[in-house]
């Protein structure tokens, strides 16, 4: 599992994930991912365009992190999931907890609001 982090000019943290978010992949990024999402009032966009498999452990990572961010006054959004990953997210009810967008610009508006 690969993870690329960048801070945008507007203060949004953009995290791009590439690979499989299964037990092994999630374990490889979990600590760094949580670190990138720490702090008060953080705004995090997670690009899933490079994720080709999402297991329950990956969903757990997103839900726990999003709830932690919300408690600290921040927001999280998921971006560009592949059709198979989007299907898993929708079946598990994730859009009710973490909004999903097909482009960075759409997420940016909501994250900065």
What does this structure look like?
By secondary structure, the chain is of the alpha/beta class. The chain contains four helices and five strands; from the N terminus they run ββαβαβαβα. The protein is 42% helix and 30% strand. The radius of gyration is 13 Å and the shape is globular. The longest helix is centred in the middle third of the chain and has 16 residues, at 56-71. It has helices at residues 23-36, 56-71, 83-91, 104-112, and strands at residues 2-7, 13-21, 43-54, 75-79, 100-101. The model has no long low-confidence stretch (mean pLDDT 96). Strands 1-2-3-4-5 form a five-stranded mixed β-sheet.
* Element order: H for helix, E for strand: EEHEHEHEH
- Ends distance: 31 Å
Judged by helices, strands and strand pairing, the structural class is: alpha/beta
Biggest sheet strand order reads 1-2-3-4-5
Q: Choose one word for the global shape.
A: globular
The largest sheet, given as strand count, sense and whether it forms a barrel, is:
5 strands, mixed
Helix content: 40-55%
Query: How much of the sequence is in beta strands?
Result: 25-35%
Give the C-alpha Rg: 13 Å
Output mean pLDDT.
Answer: 96
Q: Find the count of extended strands (DSSP E, 2+ residues).
A: 5
């Amino acid at each position: 599992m690969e993870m690329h982090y960048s801070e945008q000019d507007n203060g949004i943290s953009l995290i791009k994930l590439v690979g499989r978010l299964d037990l092994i992949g999630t374990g490889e990024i979990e600590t760094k991912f949580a670190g990138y999402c720490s702090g008060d009032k953080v705004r995090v966009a997670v690009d899933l365009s490079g994720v080709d498999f999402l297991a329950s452990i990956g969903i757990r990572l997103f839900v726990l992190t999003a709830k932690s961010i919300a408690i600290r006054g921040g927001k999280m959004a998921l971006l560009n999931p592949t059709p198979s990953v989007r299907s898993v997210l929708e079946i598990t009810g994730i859009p009710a907890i973490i909004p999903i967008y097909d482009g960075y610009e759409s997420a940016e508006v909501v994250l900065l609001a």
